[in-house]
Amino acid sequence: MKRTFFDKVVVIIMLLLIGVFIALGSYTTYATQKALVTEKQDNLINEANLLSEQTIVSYVQGITSLDYLQVRFNEFEDSLKTSVWYFDSEGKLIVASNPQNYPKLPGYLNDIDESINSKKAFTLTGDFYGIFDNTMISIGLPVYTGTTQNGFLILHTSMTELDSLQNDMLNIMYMPFLVMILVVGVVLAYLSGTVIRPIAKLNSAAREYAKGNFETRTGVKRKDEIGELSDSLEYMASELSKLDEYRKNFIANISHDFRSPLTSIKGYLEAMLDGTIPVEKYDRYLNIVLTESKRLSKLTEGLLELNDFDTYGPILKKQNFDVVDIIREVRNTVEGVCEEKQIDLRLKCPAEDTHVYADKMKIGQVIYNLVDNAIKFSPKGGQIQITVYDKNDKIFVSVKDEGSGIEKEKQNKVWDRFYKSDTSRGKDKQGTGLGLSITKEIMKAHGEHIDLISTEGAGSEFVFSLPKVQIR
After folding, report:
1. In the CATH scheme, what is the code of domain 5-164?
2. First to last CA, the chain
3. Binning pLDDT at 50, 70 and 90, where does residue 414 land?
4. pTM
5. Which CATH number is associated with domain 225-309?
């Protein structure tokens, strides 16, 4: 089974919690045991002092008998679960509580271990030099009457009772922590489901998008970051779908626009080679071949220019110049075409100062594209009006024709590459469908706008703006 990233995070968190629990448990166990043992040792010391004052001193002074001492020691062990050994000042064992409970008792203090000093108190935890089978807490205490030592008292109590008490205390402390780990595990498992499932859906949708199935939906509807990611992914798919459609149209259009002139060139040349076209008509058809070749060249140049725009953006060389001078140059260029179609190309300039700051060559290309487009749309004997006016810190250039106009729903498409409806192709059908796309890119690079105002049956008007030269 494949492990998800969130599963790994859950495992790491649970391992950390368990590790913390083990470390905390170990420390708590050690600290609790140490505290209980210390407290028990202090209690044994207090009990030994009390036993010495109330029982042993009276025995040493001859007030009570040895039998009485034995009875009291037995009662002490029975009630407090603590055995008592009493040695005299010579180190000899005098009385041991319930001696029948011990297979063998030491006769002298030194028989236990030579390191035991009868003049010094001690505390010890363990089997007391191998005498007991289980862990015991033992304390040793010298017995004094005034300043005179009258013996040595040793008390033993089992750790069993303390272990039971310690376990009860640890259970009380550990239970909430175990419940917390369980709750955290359940919460993490829930989060894993609520996070991993939508991520898996997003991943599946992304794979479909990679295959080109852009209509696929993620199926994730949430009002959080994952929901935003889902919306972004679906939006990206929508844009990719549009791009894919554009790519298909692009290939179809470019194939058509290359195929038509190539077919004409091939057909005319083959007809000339096989003699279908007589020699005296070569000039006419060679001119047609030349025209089609120029059309192919123009189409190729437009594609290369748009490709450069897509890669680097238009490289602008801005300078101050008079935009009217550029318009006059374009008018001179298209004068022959206008005369041929009997088109009246007029220039109107109400602005006093028409100097702008822009790329002179690129703006010349924009004006030429707009005028050339207007000539194609204009009927024979029509009029094209170029107007230059200023407003605030901008110079506006308008190119208006008297063509058939563009339908409202098609106006946004005129900027698309290779878009050539029957109207936009013009009657000569010589357009490449790239001129307005290039125009739009150039104006965009300048940070300016170009707008289309068109009414079907009443012509079209293109208006763009340029920054006016600021006079210092």
Report:
1. 3.30.450.20
2. 74
3. confident
4. 0.46
5. 1.10.287.130
- Report the candidate in 49, 60, 124 with the shortest Cα–Cα distance to residue 88: 60
Domain boundaries, given as residue ranges, for the chain: 5-164, 225-309, 314-467
CA–CA separation, 291 and 285 (whole Å)? 10
The DSSP secondary-structure symbol of 412 reads G
CA angle 459, 460, 462 (to 5 degrees): 160
Extract the tokens encoding 323. 């935009």
Q: Of 370, 321, 392, 357, which is closest to residue 466 (Cα–Cα)?
A: 357
The closest of 108, 111, 53 to 86, measured between CA atoms, is 108
d(CA 350, CA 77): 124
Give me the residue label for tokens 């006419």: 284
| Residues 6+ positions from 340 with CB-CB distance below 8 Å | none
Phi/psi-derived region of residue 342, left when phi > 0, alpha when psi is between -120 and 50, beta in every other case: left
For domain 314-467, give the fold. Heat Shock Protein 90 (3.30.565)
Amino acid in the structure at residue 173? M
Q: Tell me the pairing of strands 148-158 and 82-87.
A: antiparallel
- Average pLDDT over the chain reads 82
